[in-house]
Amino acid sequence: VQTEVLPPMRKVLAQWMSEVCEEQSCEDIVFPCAMNYVDRFLARTDVKKSQLQLLGAVCLLIASKMRTSRPLALEALVYYTDYSVTAEELKAWELLVLSKLHWDMASVVANDFVDHLLCCLGVSGDRDTVRRHANTFISLCATEYRFTSYSPSLLASASVAAAIHGLNRPLSCPRNEVVTTLEQITHVEADQITQCVQDIEVLMATSFAAFQQPPHSKVNSPSTAYASTKLSSNNVPSTLDSSQPNTPTDVQDVNF
């Protein structure tokens, strides 16, 4: 479908979207949900490179409306794009994305399974830590195109297993029984879960190594130019107010 957008460009976009979510203190599920919208839209519609960041910003806007009680403000998204898009473009593309996805925005992502899996596994004392680590793994996987082929239940199972295996203290759930129990809960084969755990661990190691590189050794790809932006929350305009309805699909516009 795509004639200009390549997988490396998707990764740059995903990293930018992740940074926006971090700066705005969005809930963990917003970023994976937004990437789900991005991938579904790209699978149906040819997008120019110059429109990719606009698409990412719109998907963040929609995901924040679907998954949180405090959606992102249009002004904030315009700012984070370094004013390369306008509020009017965001509104127009919001309707375009909703139309192309047939208004089917209730996507199931891996984060939706995490709490249920932790409950079934009997993880108690360290549940918050395991949940946080699992959600981090899920978000990291969302930046890599190859993980889009994994089902949400498989990705959630592997992320929970990786989070449990990474803890160095005793848990109520024996580590050697985690994958077997997850297989029984999700009906995903243990071999698939184990392979996905290994893929996550490799991704973590690669990401950590890249993070450890000194700034002068990092090479910026020309494809990152469209996504360059300042992500300092100290400079975000103080006039941003996400409580004001600002798009056609804002929940505050609906009459109950």
UniProtKB/TrEMBL annotation:
Keyword terms: Cell cycle, Cell division, Cyclin
SMART domains the UniProt entry points to: CYCLIN, Cyclin_C
Ranges in a coiled coil: none
GO-annotated biological processes: cell division; mitotic cell cycle phase transition
One Pfam family named in its UniProt record: Cyclin_C
InterPro entries: Cyclin, Cyclin-like_dom, Cyclin-like_sf, Cyclin_A/B-like, Cyclin_C-dom, Cyclin_N, Cyclins_cyclin-box
Chain intervals with Polar residues compositional bias: 214-256
Segments for region (Disordered): 213-256
Record domain Cyclin-like: where: 15-99, 112-202
Keyword Ubl conjugation applies: no
Top-level taxon in the UniProt lineage: Eukaryota
Residue ranges occupied by any Cyclin C-terminal domain in the UniProt entry: 108-233
GO MF annotations in UniProt: cyclin-dependent protein serine/threonine kinase regulator activity
Keyword Cell division assigned: yes
Family: Belongs to the cyclin family.
Name recorded for this polypeptide: Putative g1/s-specific cyclin d
